[in-house]
Amino acid sequence: IHISDLSWTKKIKHPSEFTxxxxxxxxxxxxxxxxxRRLSLGHKQLEENPWDVFETIFSVDSVHEGTIIEIxxxxxxxxxxxxxxxxxxxxxxxxxxxxxxxxxxxxxxKVIEFSKDGKKIFVSHSRIHEDVQKKEENAKKKATNKAIxxxxxxxxxxxxxxxxxxxxxxxxxxxxxxxxxx
Length: 182
Description:
The chain is built from 3 helices and 7 strands. It has helices at 51-57, 126-154, 160-181; strands spanning 28-33, 38-42, 63-71, 75-80, 84-89, 106-115, 120-124.
């Protein structure tokens, strides 16, 4: 059994993480290679592929509680519900106060990408408060734009007719000023 055929959800690095020598496990024959006298076996195929269901549960933009279980140089692994693991970059571990999340910390994570074929879920904690901030900024912009439009609508607009009338009024005033100076 190849390690990729042991579990649908767990990233197994060595078979000893899943079973031990001499233990009995249920398997399915995946392939028969008569020339090399080999059988390819699979254990995970005994169950339905949960990634079909996970695709609906962990849809992009959905939010789930997760626990950080591992942090390395560039990324972190997050334990999500249903025994699934998500991956995130260190930049997406930034909390609202600017600090970085640590191992064993429980936080809300937003799904930013789901790959059924790659069996990967990319999540972000920082995207949650960034999105809230963007919504607030957009609401402020909308309110400001609405106020500006209201002011613009209430301001009287000058027309060419008004300009002509003002020019006529100015020339009359100039004539009156010229007469009074004489």
